[in-house]
From TrEMBL:
Name of the molecule in the record: LAMB4
Domain Laminin EGF-like residues, every copy: 259-320, 365-424
CDD domains xrefs: EGF_Lam
SUPFAM superfamilies xrefs: EGF/Laminin
Compartments where found: Secreted, Extracellular space, Extracellular matrix, Basement membrane
Amino acid sequence: MNAAEVPVPPTGDLLVGRSGQLTASSTCGLDRAQKYCILSYLEGEQKCFICDSRFPYDPHTQPNSHTIENVITSFEPEREKKWWQSENGVTKFLYNLLFLHIFSLDHVSIRLDLEVLFQLSHLILTFKTFRPAAMLVERSTDYGHTWRVFKYFAKDCAASFPNITSGQAQGVGDVVCDSKYSDIEPSTGGEVVLKVLDPSFEIENPYSPYIQDLVTLTNLRINFTRLHTLGDTLLGRKQNDSLNKYYYALYEMVVLGSCFCNGHASECGSAQKTRGDVFSPPSMVHGRCICQHKTDGPNCERCKDFFQDASYGPPGQCLPSGGLSGGVGDDCPQNTEGQHCDGCRPLFSRDPLKAISDPYACIPCECDPDGTISGGLCVSHSDPDLGSVTGRSLCKENVEGAKCDRCKPNHYGLSAADPLGCQLKANKVYQCEEVRMRTTMYDVLSACACHPLGSLPLLPCD
């Protein structure tokens, strides 16, 4: 099974069918109707509106409801009339008899809780208002117990995230701060895009544990940490209308991903007794892998009963337990062999830069079969103690070259039928010299009476 044959489940929007698993820490109008305004230079005569999210959005009866499920992609007409919106932000003033308390409402989070482990590809956010001046995206692989950051975004990375490297990542998995998606323009319709695996880096083995750890998650959290403002929020309580103009608002959120099956499934089904909408839409990405290759488990992470792990991970396979394969490796993938499929077949050698689970871990020997022992064999793996190097050809006695494809000096006629590979040239001086090396002087004189200056070409030495 080569790389092209590794089954890949289809990718889709993980939000579809999971509105009940999407939450926001702040939503306008949840407890009571709230006033909000737009910037005065934006088009339209009306500048202030009412948000009332006590009931779900309905274009006819509840057009002012801006709950978080509004961000899930739909193909309704006039889609731009539906969005999620946080409470008015920046600062909140609370007075008691002695003190003025100021609370920041810049910090708002959106969270998606998945029922099983999934694989994430892209996150795309389309904003109705300014994009955040600063934000970060986190993930959890243990259902929210611990969190790790995917990426930071900020207009001023040094000010917002002073301990984080800014600019271009230097390698796959580097956590950096990106300023590309945090400018104050455009004022509406701006996007923030997260690509989990940076396409500028080549990934040799997408099934390595390191790469799999980078792309999997059970929970996704987006933290907005700073709003863009125009400098009118510092004027105090008398300018309360200025505070009503600043909040986070999203038209759409797309979480592209697939079920995570360790390369052992091409489709996934719905899991029983798991969270999700009551009626699953046709485009919903389910999380229960329909496993192939004798694998089992929610993510095809183990072998079925009576099968054993054979260098697990694509294109690794599960073989019958008890040595039923006889160690021959007939069921081993892509030019591997052995009871655990951890060696290369004859006429192949191990690429030292690839894991044995890689589809191209065993590469063909580049040896001339006429000049090598056993018709093209090469060293299958390196052994420093023996001084052997993987891929090196095993030449016959009178043959040389990295590929055993030429005769040694003063030899000719490379042939598969010749056990030495090549014959000594028909020059009696050379023939007699070779004879002298292998026999006594008496044998030489009796077997080959050669002229001191050499015999004529092609004359037998008898």
